[in-house]
């Protein structure tokens, strides 16, 4: 299983050579490793495109009834018109009641509803058409309904989806096509049905590549927009947005959220004595070392100069303090002269400090960082409101 996954990742690397880094390719397969910020941007785009699709379907679906009345007898037309009105009403509800919130699960619900409505219409209309005797002309016109699954499958390509998400939705459309064939079993033209089903699978494959290509561009552009060009860490420009996301989740779940404000000690002396290039190398080495020792859920931001902000969701004050103590015990790197690199850290936690907002929690961590400096540097200030000297 692992070798198959690695082969798939290598294949994606050859298809998208200039868009993603090798470490980012697994993000095209499943959303599990996506950052909260990517989830938010992707959820917003998905819902906006769902609403655009819903608007088009809400307008075009009932208009086709004008063509139906010229082709089918009244009883069949009335049944199809009823299905169209119901489908159009559902699209209008989707358009009116869904707004982008940045929540990925709401985006999943929106796109599922978007494709469920025409799929149900397709199955219902296919069953109704199969129960009526059609003339040669009306039978030819009825084949137009058979194109709806192909339109829906192709429509998936406008959404930035992972392979797993795309295959899930495509499988539902293929299942609906199979169900429609089962309901028309007695009159089914098997060669035609098999050819159409194979074409639908082919379109699903092309659509999956198109969706992943969109996602790849989004990942690459987001990386460039939110990362610090020197260290590669998240930038301050994206910091408040990321912090707001974590704060909102912590409030909804009443969970812990710890912030650590980190300032490298006597960093100006490095620039003054060894030059800014040496200072840049120290910053990069420190950021990489710290990032390599963090959990996947943690977010490290370069706040400015030699200041960094560490966001630790689902981490209480004691756990955050222990994690930072371990980092400092293992060392933060070396200065150009070989002496140990140290840092002053201010620590704050949402529930422990009863912070009313994420901005006040951030300010509290910032103030405690200055208290750590005033207390002699090379220490953490926060746990139990006491400065802990790093041995």
UniProtKB/TrEMBL annotation:
The keyword Electron transport does not apply. It holds the Pfam family GGDEF. InterPro entries: Diguanylate_Cyclase, GGDEF_dom, Nucleotide_cyclase, Rev_trsase/Diguanyl_cyclase. GO terms for molecular function: diguanylate cyclase activity. It catalyses: 2 GTP = 3',3'-c-di-GMP + 2 diphosphate. Its EC number is 2.7.7.65. Its cofactor is Mg(2+). This is diguanylate cyclase. It comes from Pseudomonas borbori.
């Amino acid at each position: 299983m692992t070798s198959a996954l690695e082969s798939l990742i290598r294949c994606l690397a050859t298809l998208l050579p200039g868009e993603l880094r090798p470490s980012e390719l697994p993000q095209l397969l499943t959303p599990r490793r996506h950052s909260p910020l990517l989830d938010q941007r992707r959820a917003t785009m998905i819902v906006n495109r769902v609403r655009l699709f819903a608007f088009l379907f809400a307008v075009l679906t009932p208009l086709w009834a004008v063509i139906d009345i010229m082709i089918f007898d009244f009883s069949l037309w009335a049944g199809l018109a009823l299905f169209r009105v119901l489908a159009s009403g559902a699209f209008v509800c989707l358009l009116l009641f869904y707004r982008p919130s940045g929540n990925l699960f709401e985006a999943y619900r929106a796109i599922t509803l978007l494709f469920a409505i025409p799929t149900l219409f397709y199955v219902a209309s296919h069953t109704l058409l199969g129960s009526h005797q059609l003339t040669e002309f009306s039978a030819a016109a009825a084949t137009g309904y058979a194109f709806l699954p192909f339109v829906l499958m192709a429509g998936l390509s406008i959404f930035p989806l992972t392979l797993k998400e795309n295959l899930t939705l495509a499988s539902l459309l293929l299942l609906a096509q199979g169900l429609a064939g089962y309901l028309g079993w007695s009159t089914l033209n098997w060669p035609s049905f098999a050819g159409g089903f194979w074409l639908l699978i082919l379109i699903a494959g092309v659509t999956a590549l198109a969706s992943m290509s969109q996602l790849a561009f989004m990942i690459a552009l987001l990386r460039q927009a939110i990362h610090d060009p020197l260290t590669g860490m998240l930038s301050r420009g994206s910091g408040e947005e990321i912090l707001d996301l974590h704060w909102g989740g912590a409030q909804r779940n009443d969970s812990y959220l710890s912030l650590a404000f980190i300032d490298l000690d006597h960093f100006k002396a490095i620039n003054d004595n060894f030059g800014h290039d040496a200072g840049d190398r120290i910053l990069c080495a420190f950021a990489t070392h710290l990032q390599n020792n963090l959990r996947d859920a943690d977010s490290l931001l370069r706040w400015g100069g030699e200041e960094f902000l560490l966001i630790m969701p689902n981490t209480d004050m004691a756990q955050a303090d222990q994690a930072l103590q371990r980092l400092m015990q293992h060392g933060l790197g070396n200065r150009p002269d070989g002496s140990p690199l140290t840092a002053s850290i201010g620590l704050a936690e949402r529930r422990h400090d009863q912070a009313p907002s994420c901005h006040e929690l951030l300010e509290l961590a910032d103030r405690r960082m200055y208290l750590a400096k005033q207390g002699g540097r090379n220490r953490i200030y926060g746990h139990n409101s006491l400065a802990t000297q790093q041995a």
